[in-house]
Fold this sequence. Notes:
Elements: H1 7-25, H2 32-43, H3 48-64, H4 81-89
Amino acid sequence: MSETWTRNEYRLTNAIYEAALSHRRDGKGTLREDIVARCRKATGREAEGKMLAHLGALSSARRALGLETLPDFPPLVHYPRKLLSVLDASR
């Protein structure tokens, strides 16, 4: 069963995702495990598998908007419309 994510959780995880993209553009390494751990801590969600699925959905929504994605989190086929609206509003 799918869990409902809040707009705030979407904003938090996207900010961490954006920071990882920035670090990589600057030539600094950012490990996949660190990104997942930061997202889990920021949202209070403990399940690593669900966080990985969320980050895949985030990649998918970002790709749909023409935004840069992290290769660590392959885009999923589907993503929540609410996630797309949060990302679109933050551009």
